[in-house]
Specification:
390 residues, Immunoglobulin-like, Rossmann fold, 2 domains, four-stranded antiparallel sheet, globular
Length: 390
């Protein structure tokens, strides 16, 4: 599906929070963009009427959840250092945790930089968003995906330190759960993720005549897949609300077959880069039978410093999540003050090389984001510092 050039596309994040029982009722809509003939912007709030519906009262035996604390402080971050996270692995994908500062060299736009900080095994908090494709191609694998995602979050999220969010998407993007450190909320959010068939759907990707849909647009959206819109919206809206001092990551579970996004892949990559987010992809199709666009998923992960996995079984799926967990925990941090001090918002290319001859012979693979966008001279946007978020 082709679209005209989008001018000032706007994604809107709608998070509905119940004030009655403290239950997060965020369902739809994380983001959606439309274009009219005059290139004017407008926002279509799907299920906006949900905001007027009261949440069901909890049963007497159900414990009440606390509402998220709104005590986040506003701070301004101003540093001249550029921070780059990277991992090192051998040909068998085994992580190498013995590198030293003198083993590497880092360059920016071809200019060698003086390393200010080199750390390994850093233990910064994590802000992880899991994006789950719920289109027809994932119908049969979705239960396995949900189980593996639950196990991943239970292993990764440390209460009071890390936070995670759950997003599902077809032709539109749904925020199932905003950032929280509560494993119970995250489990419930994953449980809510489901495949909703379009009208006339009989299984196996087949749609036949049946009850006419209430809206042709809704019918199209239910049967479509907007991967790049989901990554763009998550990076632009959701990760913008994460704490400043965290490592940000997007876990993208999909077959990589985008059918309706109004944002291009390059737009999604650029927005993730600006959010300092790694993108990890788990490429999985119908019953692990293939049909996965490996090229697209490899490109978005390589350009953001993540990695792509293509499991063919449930055990390989769980292994992929386990590898991502290690990747997030066993990173190195390199910080340097760029020789180019110009704040022009330009893209700066980064290269990290092994200079230790013994390590070069081992053909180690270094994974990192290949560049970043320089700061601008405009006032920086205040960021929130995470504090006691549930």
């Amino acid at each position: 599906m082709s679209f005209k050039v989008i001018s000032n596309s706007l994604f809107t994040l709608l998070v509905l929070i119940s004030a009655v029982c403290g239950t997060v009722a965020s369902r739809r809509l994380l983001a959606q963009t439309q274009v009219d003939s005059g290139a004017q912007e407008k926002i279509r709030a799907r299920r906006a009427s949900d905001a007027t519906q009261p949440s069901p009262s909890p049963t007497p035996s159900a414990p009440k959840e606390e509402l998220p604390q709104e005590s986040d402080e506003v701070v301004r971050i101003d540093t001249s250092l550029t921070n780059i996270f990277f991992t090192a692995a051998d040909k068998n994908r085994r992580f190498i945790s013995t590198l030293k500062q003198e083993d590497i060299r880092i360059s920016e736009n071809g200019q060698v930089q003086d390393i200010f900080t080199f750390q390994k095994g850093i233990d910064l908090p994590l802000s992880v968003a899991i994006l789950i494709d719920t289109s027809g191609s994932e119908e049969r694998t979705l239960p396995d995906e949900k189980a593996a995602a639950r196990s991943f979050l239970e292993a990764v999220v440390r209460p009071q330190k890390d936070e995670a969010a759950v997003v599902s998407f077809t032709g539109e993007v749904t925020l199932e759960q905003g950032f929280t450190g509560s494993l119970e909320r995250l489990r419930r959010a994953i449980d809510r993720v489901e495949f909703v068939p379009p009208s006339g759907y009989i299984g196996g990707g087949v749609v036949v005549g049946g009850t006419p849909p209430i809206s042709d647009t809704n019918q199209i959206m239910a049967a479509a897949t907007a991967i790049w819109d989901a990554v763009w919206a998550t990076s632009n809206e959701l990760l913008a609300e994460s704490a400043e001092n965290t490592r940000r990551a997007i876990i993208l579970v999909t077959d990589g077959e985008d059918t309706i996004s109004q944002m291009k892949m390059r737009d999604a990559i650029e927005r993730a880069q600006k959010a300092d987010a790694f993108v990890y992809a788990i490429g999985i199709g119908d019953s692990y039978r293939g049909g996965v666009d490996e090229g697209a998923l490899r490109k978005i992960t390589e350009q953001t410093g993540g990695r792509a996995y293509f499991p063919r079984s449930e055990s390989e799926l769980r292994s992929a999540f386990a590898q991502i967990q290690r990747d997030l925990r066993e990173q190195y941090l390199v910080a340097y003050s760029p020789t180019n001090k110009v704040r022009d918002g330009s893209y700066r290319h980064i290269q990290i090389e092994l200079v230790n001859p013994d390590l070069r012979r081992q053909e180690l693979k270094l994974s990192y984001r290949p560049g970043y966008f320089a700061k601008t001279s405009e006032p920086e946007t205040p960021t929130r510092q995470k504090r006691d978020r549930p």
